Inverse folding.
């Protein structure tokens, strides 16, 4: 997978080259290129924004600059293997399911907005020619899309084959079965008078699996009842319903 990010703050994306993601790049599992939007300006001030039509606070990012940048980064949009992703608080929710969907993309191109966002005609223009996703990472407003890109790239790349040491980790994620993950424990057996639940040391794998499922159901019911409600009818068996 090739990932391109267009931003006015390229250094914000430096964490993409650290740790797990950095190793995925070094191993050739992904390619990452970060582009400075100002490279496509032609004025001495390298202007990337202007006042909003209709008035209102803040500034809007100019369509011309974005158009030149995305044309250059995406290349010919006919039959482009790329998806254009625009992080925005006004977007569809980014979910584990969407992360999984994006793992099949040959290319992801992220457009990082700042200020009051990017002139809508940029999305409208490219949406006529390729898949465009306006995506939110949560119901809060950041100062720009760069942090959202870090979140989404990590969520997607960790799902790619070979990136995680143990593929079971991704398969048993929170949300992988529609539930939140239950609690996890490691040594010591007792820490500050708090013991590890005995079942986890029993060696009875069936009992451990049942216990973990019960804790996941309890946690989901407590913290995210909406996820429980969204489960397909056959997702819970009789033992689940007894929790
Ligand atoms: N939650 C989010 N807030 C923002 C703000 C800007 Br400005 C651009 C993208 C995003 S995604």
């Amino acid at each position: 997978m090739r990932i391109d990010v267009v931003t006015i703050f390229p250094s914000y994306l430096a964490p993409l080259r650290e740790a797990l993601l950095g190793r995925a790049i070094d191993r050739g599992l992904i390619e990452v290129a970060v582009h400075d939007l100002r490279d496509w300006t032609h004025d001495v001030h390298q202007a990337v924004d202007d006042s909003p039509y209709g008035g209102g606070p803040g500034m809007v990012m100019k369509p011309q600059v974005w158009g030149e940048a995305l044309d250059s980064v995406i290349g010919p949009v006919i039959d482009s293997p790329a998806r254009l992703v625009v992080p925005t608080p006004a977007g569809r929710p980014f979910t584990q399911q969407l992360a999984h969907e994006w793992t099949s993309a040959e290319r992801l191109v992220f457009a990082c907005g700042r200020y009051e966002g990017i002139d809508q005609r940029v999305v409208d223009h490219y949406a006529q020619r390729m898949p465009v996703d306006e995506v939110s990472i949560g119901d809060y407003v950041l100062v720009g899309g760069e942090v959202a890109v870090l979140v989404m790239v990590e969520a997607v790349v960790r799902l790619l084959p070979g990136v995680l040491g143990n593929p079971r980790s991704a398969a048993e994620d929170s949300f992988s079965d529609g539930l939140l993950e239950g609690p996890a424990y490691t040594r010591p057996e007792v820490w500050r008078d708090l013991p590890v639940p005995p079942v986890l040391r029993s060696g009875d794998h069936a009992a451990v699996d049942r216990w973990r499922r019960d804790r996941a159901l309890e946690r989901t019911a407590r913290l995210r009842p909406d996820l429980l409600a969204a489960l397909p009818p056959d997702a819970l068996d009789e033992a689940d319903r007894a929790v």
